[in-house]
Design goal:
By secondary structure, the protein is mostly beta strands. The protein has one domain. It is built from no helices and nine strands. The strands form three sheets. It has a five-stranded mixed sheet with strand order 5-9-8-7-6, with no helix packed on it. It has a two-stranded antiparallel ribbon with strand order 1-2. Strands 3-4 form a two-stranded antiparallel ribbon. The protein is globular and about 40 Å long.
Length: 84
């Protein structure tokens, strides 16, 4: 998450949802596997899921994890894929 006061991007494992009707940013309570805090990841919404790939952990290590966040049930699962 971007900290406006210090201008530093921090690692977080929070899911935030912007309500366009109320103009509010809300914290989503999630279920499923525990997700390590990260920044600089890629994410894309496909159907009812948000797919998250990679990112950098607080210790500077880079992740190659692929995660699925079910947008209806707010549940995290880990995806596994075969390399090319």
């Amino acid at each position: 998450m971007f900290n406006r006061k210090r201008q530093i991007r921090e690692c977080t494992n929070q899911v935030l949802c912007y309500d366009t009707i109320e103009s509010e940013l809300n914290l989503v309570k999630t279920k499923g596997i525990s997700i390590m805090q990260r920044k600089d990841h890629c994410a894309s919404v496909i159907g009812g899921s948000m797919i998250v790939y990679g990112g950098m952990f607080e210790n500077g290590n880079v992740s190659n994890e692929m995660l699925n966040f079910d947008l209806q049930f707010h549940e995290w699962t880990r995806l596994f894929f075969k390399g090319l």
